[in-house]
Amino acid sequence: MKLIADSGSTKTSWYLLTGTPELDRCCETAGINPFFQRKSEILSALESDFTLPKQAITSLSFYGAGATTNEKKMELCNALRQFFAIRDISIDSDLLGAARALCGRSQGIAAILGTGSNSCYYDGQRIALYVSPLGYVLGDEGSGAILGRKLLADILKNQLPEHLIKVFFETYQTTPAEIMENVYRKPFPNRYMAGFTKFLSENIQYEELRQIVFVSFCEFFNRNIAQLPQAATLPVNVAGSIAWYFSSILHSAAQHCGFAIGKVIRQPLDGLVEYHKGVI
To answer: How far apart are CA 62 and CA 50, in angstroms?
Structure first.
């Protein structure tokens, strides 16, 4: 039986493809990223959260971020082989996974707006052109990590109305010192910052918060999609929770920047399942 994994910085979605749809099963674990995690940490995440029957698995197609070098890819592969006790493992980028889920075997512009962001031109088989996302320090425009970072910065520098700042601290029962500790000293600050996008979503009626999202999406289009010549004629298809929950603002930002939005999906897994079934 084939196991398909779609891994982001926050979570990994797993789907066991049995050949009989009513017997297919899925589960979620913490995000897996070999750029930030050692083999032992990857194994620990799997051992605590993975709930599907390992003995039934004969092959694995893993799509995720962080396997940017042969060393990191091998480290991830070794961890997966140790946990699943199988040899048939393919590891591809989360961006290729999104492209296959969004475009199938047709050409298109594919993007991710989740905890991080990414984008490419996909020719129907491979990623033919892309702009490096650079991560949440230098890039990741439009991502959950950047939206959260902008929100926290505006909160701590008193750039938002006083009542919104008050609601924020009442909601999260945190302090400026705790925020600084989580951002600068604790692991996975990108996950931490992305967690505050819920506050943006729940209070998006305030123009100050809508502008945080709109401006960040415009930065994504202008700094990334604009470098893909094919985006002048092809719609931009986007996967990810940030694109999904802020889809109306995403459409507005795209139009403002001269682009058109195609498909928007919350996560690539369903499309990847169809791709591997050969339906698309």
So the answer is: 14
Q: List own/partner pairs for 12-19 with CB under 8 A and 24 or more apart.
A: 12/64, 13/267, 13/269, 14/50, 14/52, 15/269, 15/272, 15/273, 16/52, 16/53, 16/56, 16/57, 17/273, 17/276, 17/277, 18/56
CB 195 within 8 A of CB 183: no
Instruction: Report how far Cα 97 is from the mean position of its chain's Cα atoms.
Output: 11
Q: What is the pLDDT of residues 195-240, one digit of tens each?
A: 999 999 999 999 999 999 999 999 999 999 999 999 999 999 999 9
Q: How many CB atoms lie within 10 A of CB 204?
A: 16
Nearest by Cα to 2 from 57, 66, 65, 82:
57
As a dihedral over the C-alpha atoms of residue 162, residue 166, residue 171, residue 175, rounded to 10 degrees, the angle is 110
State which H helix or E strand residue 198 sits in: helix 197-202
pLDDT at 279: 59
Rounded Cα–Cα distance for residues 133 and 105 (Å): 24
Phi, psi at 246, each rounded to 5°: -115, 35
Residues of the chain with pLDDT under 50: 280
Name residue 157's amino acid. K
- β-bridge mates for residue 120, sequence order: 110, 130
Q: Torsion angle, CA of 31/33/39/40, rounded to 10 degrees?
A: -40
Residue 127, Cα to own-chain centre: how many angstroms?
A: 17
pTM of the model: 0.85
Instruction: Compute the residue count for the chain.
Output: 280
CA distance 255 to 117: 19
Cα–Cα distance measured from residue 90 to residue 104, given in angstroms and rounded to the nearest whole number: 18
